[in-house]
Amino acid sequence: MIQEYIKRVQSGEDCSEVIAKFFDEAKRIENYNYFTVLTPELAKEQALLVSKRIKAGEFLPLAGLPVTIKDCICVKGVETTAGSDILRGYKPLFNASVVQRLINAGAVIVGKTSQDEFGFGGFGINTGVGFSPAKNPLDPSRVCGGSSSGCGGITRKTSLAHVGIGESTGGSIVNPAAFCGVFGLCPTYGRVSRYGLIDYANSLDKIGSLAKDLGDCASVMSVISGFDEMDETTSTCPVPDYGSFLAKGVKGLRVARIKEAFGEGVDEHIKNKVHSVITNLEKQGASIREVSIPVVAEYAVPVYYLIAMSEASTNLAKFCGMRYGQHAPLKGSFDEYFSAVRTRHFGAEAKRRILLGTFARMAGYRDAYYLKALKIRTLIIEEYKKVFCSSDVLVSPTMPVIPPVFEDVKRLTPLQNYMMDILTVGPNLAGLPHLSVPVNKEWVGVMFTADHYKEELLFQAGGGCG
Ligand code: GLN
């Protein structure tokens, strides 16, 4: 979809008009709460630069493309809060590597998208103090999913060429993609640079893309993936031309249906939709079999939350009211000052995670919780590696439910909330790439998972979903 538009801009059409339209549209749907900030001034400047560069003979693979950035990713000079009140007023002095690559490729940054505070949630309702939850583009009484909630919402709602940059720790790309009926690709851990990302949990965070069209995801992934000297966890493994795998067909592709993902707790309606996709793949020549991953099914949720919260609680320690964002008049001891600022500016879920994460890695509990979780994480990785010896991609539903209405989410206990991630935390813990494909453009997603650095197989499988 975006390729047509990019071609026109590359051959001389002015992109300012489309950019201006984007802001008109964003204004009209303001009440959906997709943005923490819009950047019309910056976009104007970038659009002008794009024209200049094209006139000077440069080829720009994303010429004039409006791109939105999840709020936890730094954009130079633009307020970047990760959806948290504690970072209000923080304007980074640099671009995240992903943002810089997008700009270099000719993309135009139009705004920062709303999210659960620091990524702490799966419904977009754990917003920071003073932020409002994003509403589902297909039915505003329902949630968008999360934590890349605004990103999922705007990606579906806009009528213009657009790609959203999201981030996933435990499912935050595929979850909102499924709930909003768009594609979402979460790459292998280390495929895309995290430099300039406000960390939730460093060993789990990945930056990826959401788009209405799988080809659009591919175009952007090819630009943002690859080694970055600013992030030593990025891989030097070459980046394939992902787009070339879309029309490859699925003949001979070994697709493994995850047995446990079709069990109790997953809506019948969703299972049926996903089954129809699998049947369709089989008709096109994919070979289908069933695999069982019992360790993932049983332990992924507790292991994920122990590790994610442990890392989050240390990451949040730097937000003490002295370095970034919110400050207060200096009063009392450091502990008193630090506590007062954090009490006031962190939301309830952030506080819960700081407490639980600190507990799990305290002397005396560390062996029983945090270290044990790390060991089971290794078992989870081994279990996946074994199934990839005889399968190319795994298939499951993305989410066990359709997007709930806000009222119902409010009634969930924290534990019930965390259990909603049962299908997405496994690949995230193992650092495996995964893709959510919308079924009939509705709010049901089918999720494909591939082995490390095999994103191209996801594009191949997704391309076969028609
Ligand atoms: N729902 C999960 C959590 O709350 C995942 C969120 C994410 O990927 N950022 O941790």
Helical stretch count?
A: 16
> Looking at CATH, which topology of the domain at 2-245 would you report?
Amidase signature (AS) enzymes
CATH class membership of the domain at 2-245? Alpha Beta
Proportion of helical residues: 25-40%
Bound small molecules, by name, code or SMILES, are: glutamine
Structural class by helix and strand composition: alpha/beta
- Main sheet strand line-up: 1-3-2-6-8-7-12-13-11-9-10
The CATH superfamily of the domain at 2-245 appears as: Amidase signature (AS) domain
Strands, count: 13
Straight-line distance between termini: 15 Å
Q: Strand portion, in percent?
A: 5-15%
The SSE order reads: HHEHEHEEEHEHEEHEHEHHHHEHHHEEH
User: Which geometry do the CA atoms define?
Assistant: globular
Biggest sheet overview: 11 strands, mixed
CATH architecture of the domain at 2-245: Alpha-Beta Complex
Describe the overall structure.
The protein has 16 helices and 13 strands. With 466 residues, it is of the alpha/beta class. Helix 4 (97-104) links the parallel strand 2 and strand 3 (108-113). Helix 2 packs antiparallel against helix 3 (40-55) and helix 9 (294-315) crosses helix 12 (370-387). It starts with a helix and ends with a helix. It binds glutamine. Glutamine binds next to loops.
Keywords:
Amidase signature (AS) enzymes, binds glutamine, alpha/beta, 466 residues, 16 helices, two-stranded antiparallel sheet, 39% helix
Could you give a short description of this structure?
This protein is of the alpha/beta class and 466 residues long. Helix 5 (149-157) runs parallel beside helix 6, helix 9 (294-315) crosses helix 11 (348-360) and helix 9 packs across helix 12. Helices cover 39% and strands 14% of the residues.
